[in-house]
Amino acid sequence: MVIERGNSEQNPSRHSPTPKDEWQGEPRSAGQGIPPLAPIRTRRVPSQGSMGHDRPVPAAVKHPVRISNATPVQRRSPSPPTNPSPHREDLPQSATVTQNAGSPRKSQGGRLWQFGDRWRRRLINWKTLLAFSFIICGGSAALALAYIFQLPGLPNCPAVFWPLASASMRFECARIAASKQTAKDLLEAIVLVDGLPADHAMREEANRLVELWSQEVLKLAEDLFQQGKLQQAIDAAQQIPARVTAHQLVEQRVKRWQTIWAKAEKAYQNAEAAMKKRQWRQAFQSAIDLLNLDNRYWQTTKYDELTNRINTARIDGNKLYEAERLADDGGLANLLEAVKLAEQIRPESYIYPLAQEKIKGFGRKMLALAEETLERRNLQEAIAIANKIPENAKLTEEVKDFTILANAQSQAWQDTVVNLEAAISQAQRIQPTRPLYKKAQQWITRWQYSIAGLAQLDRARLLAQGRGGGLEAAIAAASLISPTNPRYREAQTQIQSWQSEIQTSQDRPILDQAEQLALPADVASLQAAINQATQITSGRALYKEAQGRIQQWTSQIQQIQDQPYLDQARAYAAAGNLRTAVKIVEQIRSGRSLYGAAQTDAATWRKQIQADVNQAQAQSDLAQAERTLQDARQMASVGLPASLANAIQLANQITRPATLRSEAAAAVNDWSLQLLQLAQQQSTSNPAAAIAIAQRIPAGTPVYLEAQTQIAIWQKMIPVQ
């Protein structure tokens, strides 16, 4: 071992003298083989304990130490001392101390420094040897343990060049891959062992492993399918070698997977379609179809996912139904509440797109409500309704245009040329790219036509002020306003007014003359008046008035003609000849002026006639009933069972009057009692005769039940033949 000390002069800056670097070394004897020291720079400091003399202080030198077991390196010889100290007699000749020129050095201080430097070197060598010993021992122990517990090394399969790899290497790497129990690794294992030639000694083992691993691949593919990884399962199954037994099931298995998957997707899509239509029962039925499929992924994960979505969509759907109901009820409050409910439907819901459409529809209903309010000329309320339309209705631009048009229409309500022109100017702010541009153009066209029509109508009115021929000219001028002009109805109303004035001036003399003709009030004069008034035809201004006069005069003629019949009929009625009176008034036909009065009198007379008939019939019925009751009593007076039965039958024919009916019923009860007594008298000697008599007692009489009881007793008395 050699300790090499670097030369401090190579990097003087690293060893600048400081007060703390005064004693860095230990004195060593000259015979210990210490390599010569590098020249040490010294500086003078006041000595503390050297009788006031200055002493040299060695500069701090950090010597790099190199420990090596190689051949000792030759020590470098220091430069010859320029001023050797006479007091360094105990050091080897090769060791020198360089002092600053002109600096005195005491021999006692030099010896102390040498002694400290030797001990320092001894301590460094001892620590180095101890550390090196620990390193050697620890390394040896580690190597021994690694050798004892060393596991056999695994081959680096990814780095193997397989065309040149041995069969054992293929089998080893294949088993490692197969142990991972994934379809991908098992297929890699199959490829490795299946690559052996057909005549290889291990070919039989390779075939066995390929069969085994192919079966496992098919099982893992089935697991992948059950996990919902259809394409991975198909890819894995289709990579199974064609010559193995498991490959015969691949096509059938893949077809089954695809069929199941197609059914599952169709059921899922059907459920989604039903949800969008809010057909919840159909959606749940489609979800239940997933439970009937032979796939765990669709039976569990997708089924739970679908049912959760259906439940969420159903809750949202109910909210949307309520919103639609409120919107159908109409009114601003209901529409705002409908929008609020629809906005609660979350974006992940299947109903969300429909809800957004409904919100837009609700917004349009609010806009229509604003337009209706504007038609009632309530500008402020109409604008307030439009401003409450929600932003997600996506009608913001239309609301802005509506506000502009509403303000324009409010100006047009003044119905003057100036205001109409102001309304046009306001509506022209709506540019062609705006949503209500076409509607604005329609209003502009309407107001332009209205201005033109108003000017034409004003000209016609000026002409009408001249009267006479001016009315005809006014009508001609107003007729120039076309039906498409907003002023058309106003013009037609004005034309009708002017025409009425013209017709009135033309027909009034005719009607006045007719009234003059009717003054005598006889049939001839009245008929002449009617003929005069009929000259005023339908559609003329005085037509209704003329018809009223004609109806009045006609009624007067009918009264003159029919009054004698009514008077004659009333005279017959007063004399008591009601039937003749009725026949006379029946000559007054329907539609005549006295028909109502004639029918009223006739109805009174008919009621009187009917009352007389009823009274006569009652008297006749009473007489007939009395005769019948008298005949019945005469029959009953004989006292025989047959006569009593005939009397009862005859008395029961009396139904009215009530007094005689009550008397006949009393007689029937009395005669029934007599029949029962006669039967009881015969019961001892002849029960059959007694039964025949008792059976003639009619139901409803007081003794009927007693008679039936006796009949039952007497029947038992008759001996059996």
Detailed description of the structure:
The protein is mainly α. Among the domains are: 8-147, no CATH class; 157-243; 625-717, no CATH class. Helix content is 64%, strand content 1%. The relative contact order is 0.02.
Distance between the termini: 164 Å
What fraction of the residues are assigned to beta strands by DSSP? under 5%
What class would the helix/strand composition place it in? mainly alpha
Low-confidence regions: 1-110, 146-152
The neighbouring-strand order within the major sheet is 2-3
The value of Rg in angstroms is: 69 Å
Query: Counting H and I runs of at least 4 residues, what is the number of helices?
Result: 24
What series of H and E elements makes up the topology? EEEHHHHHHHHHHHHHHHHHHHHHHHH
> What summary fits the major beta sheet?
2 strands, antiparallel
Number of strands: 3
The overall pLDDT average reads 76
Identify the overall geometry.
Answer: flat
Helix content: 55-70%
